[in-house]
Specification:
two-stranded antiparallel sheet; mainly alpha
């Protein structure tokens, strides 16, 4: 089967699943909550943001090659 409905769902790379599995199964928590699990989730979110920011050009901006360029910035 060729699946073309990626607006509804999109498969993820196996390495992404491995990285996310703990947060989807046993370590899930609201990163805005003050309890221990929430603080761990918040730390994971901040770590992921730092990892992504390190892959971006200096200044944290990329301009897409689309017809109407859109800017992506990380807070």
């Amino acid at each position: 089967m060729i699946y073309l409905d990626y607006q509804a769902t999109t498969p993820i790379a196996p390495e992404v699943f491995v990285a996310m599995e703990p947060w989807l199964t046993t370590h899930f928590a609201n990163p805005h909550s003050p309890h221990k699990a929430g603080r761990a989730a918040a730390a994971a979110v901040e770590s992921a943001r730092a990892d992504i920011a390190a892959m971006l050009p200096p200044g944290g901006r990329i301009i897409s090659p689309a017809a109407r360029p859109r800017r992506l910035t990380l807070p």
